[in-house]
Amino acid sequence: MMKSDVEIARVARLRPIAEIAKTLGIAEEHIEPYGRYKAKLTPEALAGAEKNGKLILVTAINPTPAGEGKTTTSVGLADALHQQGKKTVVALREPSLGPCFGMKGGAAGGGYAQVVPMEDINLHFTGDFHAITTAHNLLAALIDNHIFQGNALDLDVNRIVWKRVLDINDRALRHVVTGLGGRVHGIPRESGFDITVASEMMAILCLADGLADMKRRLGRILIGYTRGGCPVHAEELGATGALTLLFKDAIKPNLVQTIEGTPALIHGGPFANIAHGCSSVMGTKYALKCADYVVTEAGFGADLGAEKFFDIKCRLAGLKPDAVVIVATVRALKMNGGVPKDALGTENLDALKKGAANLEKHIENIGKFGVPAVVAVNVFPTDTEAELLLLEELCARLGAKCARSEVWAKGGAGGLALADAVEEAIAKPSNFHPIYDEKKSIAEKIEMIAREIYGADGADFTPEAKKQLAEMETLGMTETPVCMAKTQYSFSDNPALLGRPTGFRITVRELRASCGAGFVVALTGNILTMPGLPKVPAAMGMDITEDGVITGLF
Prior knowledge:
- This protein is α/β, with parallel strands linked by helices.
- Helix content is 34%, strand content 19%.
- The protein contains 18 helices and 25 strands.
- Strands 1, 2, 3, 4, 5, 6, 14, 15, 16, 17, 18 and 19 form a twelve-stranded mixed sheet that branches.
- Helix 12 packs across helix 13 (349-368) and helix 13 packs parallel to helix 14 (385-397).
- The protein is globular and about 70 Å long.
């Protein structure tokens, strides 16, 4: 009987983290251990390192609610390359407690392709998310205190844009009124909570190239407007120093390992449907300096994570990807072909053919960025041989190199064919370029993403969003990338439109200026920045025994 993910992780033989660092040429004095199997890397860790590794992005088709194994594939591919004797690092995002306790459970890979210690990584890890939550809410507290203490900046209490955050799904906190109970308890005003991974400070952590850069970015955060309509930034509160010191450790990338001992740098964790969906620039650059191959991933489908990886992370950090892996599953393609969730385990070749249009669009999109692509078919036990053969035939018709991935069941050995296919792709020239010129207007960039990446007929802006377009010019945010907040289940902003929909338009209802991160967030459709819990949250099935054994996390 196949072991569960947590059972596999629990019996894995981990190497002391100093040994893992040594394989990367990092001396023990340049790591800051968090126990035996986790460590932070100091800024001196890679001083003098001269490698310039190959960068491989793992993305996916539009997923089912359970996800399609993108992280598992990333880990398994790194292990496969490692087995082939290549110096490899996998660079991933940190899991959020929101989905861990909500719908998905843990998020550290699966089966024999996991990063470990899995339970630690999923629960608090090294405290990076707590640092973000604390710093974000410190700024919110300083804003309210400033207003209470006389409001020298003349802030308009109705135009404070900085909310509070919490790393738990909680729909009851989306809209709140603070300061109730009389004068002594503050000034009443409407506000709300976002989930921590949607915080601009999360984006800043992931895009900064060091503590000094982070301090500059934190100071640029827009907190609100004066009653005269002038923008006010965090630095005007005198808050920048205090905010930065809360990140003195969080800014350092985290070093762990896979079950097979491949080094893993896990740092930062923005969602891709409401944020930019990529691990930290620092983690990626550290990895590229000490490895020949770096496998990284970007959240959800390629219409979200990959587009933002290319247009935001690579553009702002000067990165050039060498190859892309598009993870596809038979079950997700059948769902995109119209099969309901509870019937995905039943063979359905017609639905698979129909749903393959979704994969076709993602392949086309990656080509628009000039990067060679490979399709990884993540094999599930319910897949039939007829379905797998048909999917391979469909990929061949689409002109895409395809390889089966069985890393969940076999670890790196199940990813050797995929590793070979990726090697072939890397041998091809990468002519990477972003999809749009950042000097175009915000509206033009959104229109281009909607048409070129989503296949929409165009983008519409609500009256409020049109007003905010003008505000972006006042803030000097016109020549910045755009971070689209959109459902992950569809190319459109309607989660019910699966496959490769046509004849639709994208509706932008709100724009938010992330002045510190350096991009504008465009909220589309009904996307929310504070998720809610499902009817039966994953948390309801979790427990811990008296001797510390955790159950139900994964």
